[in-house]
Amino acid sequence: MRPEGRLELESLYFDYPAFASPADRAPLGMPAEVAIVGAGPVGMTAALTLARYGVRSVVLERKRTFNDGSRAICIARQSMQIFETLNAVGPFLDKALPYVAGRTFYRGEQILRFEMADSPDEKFRPMYNLQQQYIEAYLYEAVEASPFIDVRWGSEVRNLTDIEDGIRLSIADDLGAYEMDASWAVAADGARSTVRRLRGLRLQGENYEGRYVIADIRMAFDHPTERIALFDPSCRRGGTVLVHRQPDSIWRVDYQLTETETEDEALREDTIRTSVASVLRDIGYSGEWELEWWSMYSANTLALEDYRDGRVFFAGDSAHIVPIFGVRGLNNGFADAQNLGWKLAWVLQDKADERLLESYTPERRGATMDVFANAAKATRFMTPPTRGWTVMRDAALLLALRHPFAGEFANPRNMVPYTYAEGSLTRPDRHGFTGGPSPGAVAPNVALEDGFLLDRFGAGFNVVVCGALEGEPYRPGLDEVSVVAIVPGSEAARVYDADEGAAYLFRPDFHLCARWRKATWGEIRRALEWLLEGGSG
Amino acid sequence: MEPHLEDVYEALARAIDAAGRDKETLLLAKVALLFAQRLDDPLTACALIEEALVDLDAMGG
To answer: pLDDT by residue (tens digit) across A144-196?
Structure first.
């Protein structure tokens, strides 16, 4: 919502483009390899991932512009890494606000200062703040530059039926209606997914009690970028408040409603202005400010039982809705898109058995369940559901005034990449590693003399090799695999717990398939073949 | 005199009275967290919590 007198998309700082439905009607009905429903951040990431491997997609978006309002603003390191592999990270680095820390206050006193893991070995900072419409605009720059992606705005999917070896979509736009067949469909159409409804599927899980308002304002507040959390502040007794800095002098004020506040009342402009003003007093700002946009949310842990329905895959909010605490919503959506993207590409290009796709739900739903466990903890702290949780939360906050250990209960446990430890594409260790990334984990980065280790990774499968491997010098069946050499005894070898002859086989999404203390090319080839046949349960 | 478990018993009784009915639960929750942190053995702490839950109704009422 926006203040009285301003249009729905009339922002103080962002010019919303207006996209038209496709004017050239002739090619619209041509079959597509992949139809992606939704040109939000997740849909565009899926399209860019497919394009990276030369797979064409058609992206269908009901709206005619980018997302209204800032919404998902926290981009985790792993998401920046994904953008980099998609050659899209440049504008994000120019605009987004990086940060490593957060501070939590209880009744005006600081009880916790946390720092997210960071080191010189990391190319990207643990977290960046950027409004969602910028995220979409920057991904769209990359999408527009790709010859493999056809985005159709103002295009609504009206129906979606199974045909032999594909999906038939009925699409309506401003200029007419048409049908299009696709080998596969990706539903990236958000929390209120049309595709999910058309397929007769429902999200399952829990709704939490708390309701929160998010309001964006513009103000010249001189304060570093960090997560600020206020428990029981004088502006909202018994409630919680979060404050986040965004680019363009925009600040996110996020506060919990009390049980007696009605939604209608809370969302009235004068109520928003009064509530924001009292939060600003609490954080020590007394200058001018302008109201930009506001919205409301509640905390949910909802997911589909299966992220796949025949030839339709669900990614992002269409598959799972998580509480915002811990910033795992959109960040996991990016990981969904990347995971699905490379697997679909390998299957479509006959480089992998279709069984490879069976790993999508267990891997990504596993990540969602992990998010639920963490987010449920964070949510119970922010919004205790019963008296027991309230007593313990209050006890922890009071103790934290003098005992730093208790402040850690207020740590939001921000997003870290999920490890596919039990996955069907993951081979358990048999070789007694004591450190390094475990099977299923994402590849750790290492600073080298010239850049970073992950910069050397190729687009497909990668083998990190320490020194020289024993045995066969030739590598049949591994032509498309990139070899990333690390030097025995180096920092990289230390991070990977690798001595001469060790090897790590990484998937195109940088997750570890298998590793060997003393590898042979034959073993690596067999592991790759095993994975491309779909691995095993 | 040697410190004794009875000293803890008495200190808790006095602290509950000092906190008053409104705050006694909060006080005991704080005490439990402090003890558990010093104990540095979450498994044992959780087992002791389970043990404390037993026989709560034996007093009647």
So the answer is: 999 999 999 999 999 999 999 999 999 999 999 999 999 999 999 999 999 99
Of the candidate ranges A40-49, A375-384, B2-11, B38-47, the one whose mean pLDDT is the lowest: A375-384
A contacts of B37 (beta carbons < 8 Å):
403, 405-406
Nearest residue of A to residue B37, measured between CA atoms: A405
Q: Where are the alpha helices (DSSP H) in A122-227?
A: 132-145, 194-198
**Residue B35 maps to a domain:** yes
Cβ–Cβ below 8 Å for A398 and B30: yes
Phi and psi at A382, nearest 5°, equal -70, -40
Total count of domains within chain B: 1
Q: What is the pLDDT of residues A485-531, one digit of tens each?
A: 999 999 999 999 999 999 999 999 999 999 999 998 889 999 999 99
Q: Write down the pTM of the prediction.
A: 0.92
Distance from CA of A189 to the nearest CA of B (A): 43
Structure tokens at A4: 């009285």
In the numeric block, the tokens 């397929």 are attached to A199
Instruction: Give the nearest partner residue to A405 out of B25, B30, B37, using CB atoms.
Output: B37
The answer to whether A392 contacts B29, with C-beta atoms less than 8 Å apart, is yes
Provide the domain limits for residue B29.
Answer: 5-55
Q: What is the pLDDT of residue B52?
A: 94
Establish if B61 belongs to a structural domain. Answer: no
Where do runs of H (alpha helix) occur along A305-418? 329-348, 360-382, 387-400, 404-407
Beta bridge partners of A185: A35, A312
pLDDT for position B60: 63
Of A391, A405, A406, the CB nearest to B26: A391
Residue A232 distance to chain B (closest CA, Å): 16
Residue B24 inside a domain? The answer is yes
ipTM for the predicted complex comes to 0.94
**Alpha-carbon gap: B53 to the closest alpha carbon of chain A (Å):** 14
**In the predicted model, is pLDDT for residue A337 greater than 70?**
yes
Shortest Cα distance from A114 to chain B (angstroms)? Answer: 19
Residues 6+ apart with CB under 8 A from A231: A104, A105, A106, A107, A111, A240, A397, A410
Overall average pLDDT of the A356-373 stretch: 93
pLDDT of residue A240 exceeding 70 = yes
Q: Which residues contact A285 (CB under 8 A, 6 or more apart)?
A: A219, A221
CA distance A288 to A290: 7
Is residue A351 a contact partner of residue A53, using CB atoms and an 8 Å limit? no
Q: What is the pLDDT of residues A395-446, one digit of tens each?
A: 999 999 999 899 888 887 666 778 998 888 999 888 788 999 999 999 999 9
Q: Give me the domains of chain A, ranges plus CATH numbers.
A: 26-96+127-203+301-360 (3.50.50.60), 447-532 (3.40.30.120)
Count of CB contacts below 8 A, A vs B? 23
Residue B52 in contact with partner chain A when CB distance is under 8 A = no
B18 touches chain A (CB under 8 A): no
Mutate to test the interface with B, among A111, A393, A402, A403 (most CBs of B within 10 A): A403
Residue of chain A minimizing CA distance to B33? A396
Put simply, the answer to whether B33 touches A406 (Cβ < 8 Å) is yes
Judged by CB atoms closer than 8 Å, whether chains meet at B29 and A405 is answered as no
Q: Is residue B10 part of a domain?
A: yes
Instruction: Identify the pLDDT of residue A476.
Output: 65
Query: What residues have CB less than 8 Å from A482, skipping those under 6 apart?
Result: A456, A457, A458, A459, A460, A461, A462, A463
